[in-house]
């Protein structure tokens, strides 16, 4: 036992090991070799993984995308992680709004889809409504001194996602926000641009019947295109007083070359064939630059120069096109483009948070008769 323990001690601690040195020297050499092998194997696996990833991302994905309408629909009308529980839309902790479900008729099938919609009261009216359980929202909307704003949200959002923005809007307006088919707790249906524009047109007409107040429309991102197409289709019937387009793009095909995710694909020789053309073929056009010619009201373009999702030159182009519309000089005079300095850091989503936005907005609004916000406005209520 003693002897055994001594040997153990000897093997572990004696630096002068005599003949055993060879084996000691041998050890690091073997380590070196395994390290080299390891490195080579890792390098090979890394390179093959990279090649595999490259093939999956830049070859297989575009090919699948080209042939899969449902993938195109999911990536254009993104809805991941959005709230879908109706109860949440009905009882959200947001002051003084009313939840509706508005029926619209599907273009192809004549089926009725119910779309979720909120009516948010202007601040001054909300003050009266907050302590009144029987407050009549429909009556408030019907003959209001406040104008009404219809908001078209962007993709990847639902109507519960822009609560702070609504607080900005309700300084001026009754705010109407709704979810496109398949978004939020709106009923699902075939996700095609023409179907959604058709739904939007019916929402607009529903709203026209609910109020005699002036109608304004505000679109953000993809919502700018849906708003413009909707008004273009309605033509004179829309009778919109003013249109506000925040981060608008000229057409989907052009936007694809600049979108932060899609732009990594644009150098591919097969980009056009596998991504741009299939979307066009399936009717995802969003050709704002064409439809805007049919919009007859003044337009306010808002765009942050540091917007990385939609480049601001697109709003400049749309402004230019809208100045060539066949409309009264007054409408053109009231059409404006406001670009926000990149130092303000407003990017794609936060223009409404800039403290000057309210003044640009006021400046746009003051041209229209019936603009209700004034120092004596509150005397109308109570
Ligand atoms: C929906 O939300 C309500 C309120 O938060 C909750 O009580 C209910 O369980 C939810 N329903 C579903 C199906 O998740
Ligand atoms: C939808 O209704 C219209 C008239 O309301 C009718 O002309 C058309 O054939 C219907 N389409 C389908 C697919 O049922
Ligand atoms: C509550 O609102 C209803 C309908 O708008 C109105 O008739 C009623 O007078 C209001 N009640 C109070 C206490 O203000
Ligand atoms: C709207 O304003 C007018 C005065 O400009 C006032 O007589 C009327 O009562 C107001 N209507 C409402 C619903 O507040
Ligand atoms: C332009 O508006 C008219 C109605 O004023 C409508 O008939 C026409 O279809 C619209 N054009 C487009 C491209 O939507
Ligand atoms: C359009 O709006 C004006 C006010 O801007 C109003 O006088 C006119 O009646 C409206 N026309 C229609 C068809 O709603
Ligand atoms: C529109 O663009 C053309 C040429 O690019 C330019 O000459 C014209 O001044 C622009 N118009 C406006 C209103 O910016
Ligand atoms: C439009 O603006 C121009 C230049 O500012 C001005 O001369 C003209 O009177 C305006 N026209 C209308 C209808 O307001
Ligand atoms: C607002 O007040 C001013 C002066 O007190 C008055 O001249 C004006 O008519 C009022 N406007 C409205 C819409 O009541």
TrEMBL record:
Family annotation (InterPro entries): AB_hydrolase_fold, Hydrolase_4
Keyword annotations from UniProtKB, A to Z: Membrane, Transmembrane, Transmembrane helix
Pfam families xrefs: Hydrolase_4
Listed name of the protein: Serine aminopeptidase S33 domain-containing protein
Domain Serine aminopeptidase S33 per the UniProt entry, residue ranges: 148-274
Domain of life according to the entry: Eukaryota
Assigned GO CC terms: endoplasmic reticulum membrane
GO molecular function: monoacylglycerol lipase activity; phosphatidylcholine lysophospholipase activity
GO terms, biological process: monoacylglycerol catabolic process; phosphatidylserine catabolic process
Taxonomic source organism: Ceutorhynchus assimilis
Coiled coil residues, start to end: none
TM helices/strands, residue ranges: 39-65
């Amino acid at each position: 036992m003693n002897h055994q323990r001594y040997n153990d001690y000897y093997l572990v601690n004696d630096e002068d090991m005599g003949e055993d040195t060879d084996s000691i020297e041998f050890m690091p050499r073997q380590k070196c070799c395994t390290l080299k092998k390891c490195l080579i194997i890792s390098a090979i696996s890394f390179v093959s993984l990279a090649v595999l990833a490259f093939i999956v991302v830049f070859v297989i994905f575009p090919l699948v995308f080209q042939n899969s309408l449902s993938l195109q629909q999911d990536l254009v009308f993104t809805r991941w992680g959005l709230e879908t529980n109706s109860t949440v839309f009905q009882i959200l902790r947001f002051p003084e709004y009313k939840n509706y479900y508005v029926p619209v008729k599907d273009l192809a099938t004549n089926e009725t889809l119910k779309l979720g919609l909120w009516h948010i009261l202007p601040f001054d009216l909300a003050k009266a409504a907050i302590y009144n359980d029987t407050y009549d929202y429909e009556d408030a909307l019907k003959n209001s001194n406040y104008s009404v704003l219809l908001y078209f949200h962007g993709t990847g959002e639902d109507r519960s996602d822009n609560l702070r923005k609504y607080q900005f809007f309700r300084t001026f307006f009754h705010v109407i926000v709704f979810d496109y088919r398949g978004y939020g707790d709106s009923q699902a249906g075939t996700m095609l641009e023409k179907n959604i524009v058709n739904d939007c047109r019916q929402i607009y007409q529903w709203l026209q019947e609910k109020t005699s107040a002036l109608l304004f429309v505000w679109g953000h991102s993809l919502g700018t295109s849906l708003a413009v197409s909707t008004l273009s289709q309605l033509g004179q019937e829309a009778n919109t007083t003013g249109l506000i387009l925040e981060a608008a793009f000229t057409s989907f095909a052009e936007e694809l070359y600049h979108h932060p995710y899609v732009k990594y694909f644009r150098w591919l020789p097969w980009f056009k064939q596998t991504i741009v053309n299939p979307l066009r073929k399936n009717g995802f056009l969003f050709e704002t630059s064409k439809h805007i010619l049919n919009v007859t009201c003044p337009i306010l373009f808002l765009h942050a120069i540091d917007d990385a999702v939609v480049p601001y030159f697109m709003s400049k182009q749309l402004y230019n096109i809208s100045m060539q519309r066949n409309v009264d000089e007054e409408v053109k005079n009231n059409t404006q483009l406001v670009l926000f300095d990149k130092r303000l850091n407003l990017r794609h989503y936060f223009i409404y948070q800039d403290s000057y936005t309210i003044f640009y907005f006021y400046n746009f609004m003051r041209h229209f008769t019936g603009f209700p916000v004034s120092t004596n406005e509150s005397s109308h209520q109570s």
